[in-house]
Amino acid sequence: MAGRVLEGRRIAFLAADGVEEVEYVQPREAVEKAGARTELVSLKGGAIRSFNHLDPSTSYDVDVAVAEADAGAYDALVLPGGVANPDFLRADPEVVRFVRSFHEQGKPIGVICHGPWTLIDADLVRGRRITSWPTLRTDLVNAGAEWVDEECVVDGGIVSSRKPDDLPAFCATIVEEFARR
């Protein structure tokens, strides 16, 4: 991650209550350090509560509600994990529309841990090689993905990782992929 390779780029972080704090904070810090401007997009305005595993942690102010967000205004998207966060997100039609719009516009998406649940509902995993938290394997395979147990996978503009231990590789790879596209 040399220099400010994301200078002038705008990155959306899509999260809801229950987001795994480290999977939100570390990637956001990585892209900001590389020069990107970031915004937290969520189900509604106000704030969301992150978690450290299953323990409530910090609150983060939402920059824009997903119904008001335009994927065209961003250069890339990050979907952090956590058990509850992606389950809340995937149930919202505006979230599905927003996520699908990134793919339709050829913009890269970074996703970690349980985050791919949202990609399943946006029908973005079919025919892709992807990784995730191990318990999502069956869901991803049933949705047409080739699930692999690897630290970080890049396929068709989607960067995926399994868990918090993979964050160094995930953060470096999203910066690299977001700079390339």
In total, the number of domains comes to 1
Radius of gyration: 14 Å
Beta content = 25-35%
**H/I helix tally:** 6
Strand order of the largest sheet: 6-3-1-7-8-12-11
The end-to-end distance, rounded to whole angstroms, is: 15 Å
CATH architecture: 3-Layer(aba) Sandwich
Order of helices and strands: EEHEEEEEHHEHEHEEEH
Q: Give me the CATH fold name.
A: Rossmann fold
CATH homologous group name: Class I glutamine amidotransferase (GATase) domain
The major sheet is characterized as: 7 strands, mixed
Q: Please report the total strand number as a whole number.
A: 12
Structural class: alpha/beta
Q: How would you sum up the global shape?
A: globular
Low-confidence stretches: none
Protein name: Protease I
GO biological process, one term: proteolysis
Organism: Micromonospora echinospora
InterPro entries: C56_PfpI-like, Class_I_gatase-like, DJ-1/PfpI
Task: Give structural notes.
Belongs to the peptidase C56 family. One of its GO terms (molecular function) is peptidase activity. The protein has 181 residues and is an alpha/beta fold. It has one domain: Class I glutamine amidotransferase (GATase) domain (Rossmann fold, 3-Layer(aba) Sandwich), CATH 3.40.50.880. Helix content is 32%, strand content 27%. It contains 6 helices and 12 strands. It has a 7-stranded mixed beta sheet, sandwiched between helices. It has a 3-stranded mixed beta sheet with strand order 2-4-5. Strands 9-10 form a two-stranded parallel sheet. The longest helix has 14 residues. The radius of gyration is 14 Å and the shape is globular.
